Amino acid sequence: MASPATLALTLGSSLLIGCAAAIHWRSVVAGDAVANPTGGGGTVLLEPVPAKPATRRSRAIFVCGRARPVIFSDRPCGEGFLERELKVEVPAPTAGRVASTIPSPAPAETRPRPKPAPGDDKPSAQEERCRALREERGKLDDHMRSGYTAREAARLWNRWRELNNEIFSARC
Hints:
The protein is of the alpha+beta class.
């Protein structure tokens, strides 16, 4: 029988050889172009998927009751109905967007905003009154912030309320 040291040496060397074989075998399988397309030096050609055209659906709508009130229904509703067809175009979702039934907002307006005529610089009487009321309230606010006596408090607050009521009634 072999000595325990020889047995341990033989077992250790066979284990080392087995592990090396397993590692080599795994690296050959992982280096395969099918198993690992980005590694191993192979090239992959990605082609864009053609976009699906917008799907068009049509739906029958029935207009019931020629007298008031008019009722719209998806089913015929007795005599005297009028059949209409509603065409709905559902755009295909673009990449990175979730499909939705809510229509997308209109693109931003690209035309320049129209400029007012040069003769319209004079404010109207309403605008002038609003400006004067706001200016008076601003002066009153400044006076109240700078401090006032207890004797002045009631008069200042009543005037402040009156000015706010006037501004509100003038729709400023």
